[in-house]
Every structure is written in C-alpha cells, then in structure tokens.
Amino acid sequence: MSKKVGILWGGGLGDLLVIRPFLLALHANPSVESYLLTSATHLTELFEEFCSPTKIIQLPSQYRMLLPIIRKWRHVFDLIYLSPYPTFKTRMLGQLLASEKLWSRSHKNIQPYILDQVFADITALGLSTEINDKNLTVFLPWQAKNKNNPFSEGSPFLVLHPGAKKKWETTLWPTEKWKALVVKLLKETDCSLCVLGVKDEEKHLNTLVDPLPENLKNRVKLCIAQPLQNIAELILGSCGVICHNSGILHLSTFLQKKTVCITGSSGIYWQPHFPWVKNLTSGLCTLACNCYKCPVPFFRAKCINGIETDAVWNEVINHFNID
User: What is the pTM assigned to this prediction?
Assistant: First the structure.
C-alpha cells in the first residue's frame, strides 16, 4: 500500500461521516501516513474526533493563496484520493500535487451514494478486508448506544433539523412551510418535537416555536449547539428525523433511524438509498444540480420551494407509522 496518502475532501459533517470508512481502512495499516486536505473551516472541532491520526492540511479558501501549499506538498504523496465525484477545481489541485497515483473512480455497478462509492474504492485499492457496510454505526467515532428522551414524561418525539448552511438556497425549505408542518405535527399526532440547530440558527428556530399556543409550545424543545454524540442519542431515542440534506441526514443514516429528507437540489450521490431514508423532492426540476443557488433563471429553486407541506406530512405519516 502507498506510504503517504493525501485525501482531497470536504470538511462538513456529512463529508467526514462518509470518508470515515476510508480513513479507518488507512489507519489499519500502521505504515501508512494519511493527510486530509480541506478548505472547510466551519466544523474544525470535528477534525480530531473524526480523522485522527490522519493529519489535517488546511487549504486557503482563496485559490491564489494555494501556491505555497502546492509547492510544499508537490511530489510528496504516493496516492492522492479524490471523491468519486470531484469538482473541476479539486481534480486540478490533485493533478498539481503530482502524486505517484491519482485516484478518482465512479463505480457504475454500485449505488451512486457517495458512501457506497467509498466502500467500493476501499475494495478496489485493496485497503482492508475488515471494512464493510453491514453495520454503519461502527464507523462513528464513539459508541452510539444510549437513547435520550428530553421530555420528562417520556413522550414519543420526532427530531427536526430545519437548518443547513445559509448559502444553500436550494436545500433550505421555506420557513413558512416548516411552521405549518410543526403545527400539523403537534395538532394531529401525539409526538413532541425536538428541534436541532447550531447557535447561529437559534433566532430562526425561535420563529418556529414562539407563535405556538402554550399547550403546543410545551411539547417542543430547542436543542441548540449540542455535542454531536448527544445529538446521536436524541436521534436514537426518537421516532424519526425530518431534515434537509445536511450532516444530520447522514448521521441518522449511519444510526439507521427512519428519516424523511426534504431534499431539494442535492445530487443523487448525496441521497442515501437505504430503506430507512426517504428522499423527498418536488419533482418540478430533475437537474439535481447540487448548486448553492438555482442555476436556472426564473425557476426560483422550485426543487425545494415546490415541496408542499402536505407532501412532507404524508411522507412522515407513512414512513414513521405515527398517529
């Protein structure tokens, strides 16, 4: 096996989850040094937890600042591993680093979901016979066994994650539709709601809860800026998850918890295909462009904005089997 492996990858929660099996396969060989090269800065606190002993090389966000990085690391790596679906800029950076081998394969006979493609790469590269997709929870950086219910009466509850990066206009379902869904869930089911978010989203999440009458409001808890392991325990204790296509989707996928994902523009390679995950789109645009902003004039991101509240409601009722 190559002695020095560089991985050009994203640094979001979803990115780190799907690359974990590859990193663990590298770690199984003590003679291999691995390096993850990423420009992501929004979740750097997860790098140690998810990647160690892989070393992190922080790339500048401005491309004109990359030259010193390229000079330092050019001809260093025996293998550069790219995503099965690298962007043009990522592929160019891989070429400029001039490793002995540059690896980027899309396995046509394998599900397009990026996690499945990573497993296929592990096999194709002969990294490890111990790494397989039979139990995804083993790839989490901690044991996920405890089930947490934040409601003192122990009532059944759903986990909602209405957030995503702000610039992802094509994966953020409109706030008014989230509000309507919250009211419908509280009025027409016995489930309470645990609403997840980061600190920057607290004000937005309060707009979902504040207008509720008191008898409904006391069945909602905001879980803001929780440690990831705590979030995993909340997901395990819940009846299911409703979210955008973001890191929480991939965490619930690894935990094998029933999930309804309001998908929008996310490419098919970011859509888990497992039976416990339902990917809901409007059907009004089939581009699955995976772009931050809608690339089609006058479409106004109808891939996500065109998903009606009743469509999500019906999927939730059918998939979660709740009354």
Answer: 0.94
